[in-house]
Amino acid sequence: MQAKGKFTYEVNDPDIDRTISFRCATIKEDVHRLHHWHHQNHVIPFWKQNFSFPQYREYFQKLLADRHQTLYIGHLNGKPMSYWESYWAKDDIIAGHYEVEAGDQGIHLLFGPEEFLGKGYALPLLRAMTAFQFQHQDTKKVITEPDIRNEKVIHIFKKCGFEPQKEIDLPDKRALLMFCYRETFLGRWKDVDYIQDLYRSEQHV
Question: pTM for the full model?
């Protein structure tokens, strides 16, 4: 469901019995938090943004000003614990690697605090963000391109409904291009409470 207040999107996930919510990231509230997260050992190898604080602040300001993407902080029961980049593929470098459609959206993600790793939260959070992106009626597929070495995150994307397409070379990594089609996603998760309404509406189009 759409949320009121500071959160852009908020759902109650039945599998983990937690409230998942996303809000837009800001310099004031998040630059120190994200600078810290990008210096975590589990983040550095795949994001490579362990810059000094002045450099990171400048970099983050540029990201926020980039209109082809929206940056979100993901929360569990109101506690900030993940970072998400939701982007329009047609305006991204990824558009040079496949036949992009106008409504295609993409995802980048990271979990910050180690206390949230290995607890089974990754799939519910990814599922919630993907459902959020499919709220946009013109989005027929969501794409991602994780580092080919990041086997754990590739596994989670597969469980969510993302299908490997091909390996590609991006400026900062060798990546696995993956697609999650709207019909596949809604069919897979039609029994999840907060996705049911979206699934039913698709059946009546």
Answer: 0.94
